[in-house]
Known about the structure:
The protein is mainly α. It has 13 helices and no strands. Among the domains are: 11-125, no CATH class; 137-192, Arc Repressor Mutant, subunit A, CATH 1.10.10.60.
Amino acid sequence: MFQLPILNFSPQQVAGVCETLEESGDVERLGRFLWSLPVAPAACEALNRNESVLRARAIVAFHAGNYRELYHILENHKFPKESHAKLQALWLEAHYQEAEKLRGRPLGPVDKYRVRKKFPLPRTIWDGEQKTHCFKERTRHLLREWYLQDPYPNPSKKRELAQATGLTPTQVGNWFKNRRQRDRAAAAKNRSVAHGGDGPRRRKISGEGGWRGGDRAAGPQSGLAPARNPLCSDRLRSQIAGRRGCESCCSLPRPAPDSLG
C-alpha cells in the first residue's frame, strides 16, 4: 500500500509553514502541504490544537468549496480575536455563495442581511460585540462631501478616504457604489414622474369637464366661445343650414342689388 512520506516537522514548524503560505496567498500549495502532514494520532492531536493549522485548514476548505468542513472547523474550535475578522469573512462568504447557488441569482443587500440573520456568527469567532453596518454620522458626512466632488474615486483616493474615516478601501468603494445606485434610481423615478405620472390623468379629467360643461358655461356674459359639439357632424350642419337658409350659415356677403342681372 502506498504511504505518504512522513515529514519530521514539529507542530511549531508546521504552524510556521502554514502562516507563510497563508500570507503568500498560495492556497493550492497550502492545501498540498496540509495533505502531506502525518496522520499519526499523537501528531494529529497536537496539530488540531494549533490555531495556525486550523486557520489554514479553514482557508483551504473554503477555496475548495467544502463549506461543511469549514463550518465544522469554525464552530468547534475557539480562535483568538486576531483571527476573528478573517474567519468571519469566510463564514459569511460561504453562506452567501450557498444562498446564491440555491436561488440561482446574485444576492442583494437585503438578501445578505437575511443570510446573516439566519446564520449568525458562532461565538468561536465572535466576541459577542454587536456589529453595525451603518457608519457614524461624521463618517457619512465626510463620505458625502467626497462624493459630491467625485462620485468615481480612484484607488488612491479610496485609500486616502479610508485612512481619514477609519474604514477599509473596500468599505469605501462599496459605499460609493451603493450611493451611485441610489442616485440613479432616484433620477429614473423623477424622469418617470415628469414624463408620465399624474399629468395625463389631469388633462383627461380637464377634457371631460370641458365636454360636459362647455355649452352651459359659454354664453354672452362668459366671454367664451361655445364649445363645438363633437356629435354635430358636417352633414347634419349642412341639413340645418338648408332649412334655415344660406344667410344663417354662409359667411359670404350677399351680392349688391345693382350687381344682379
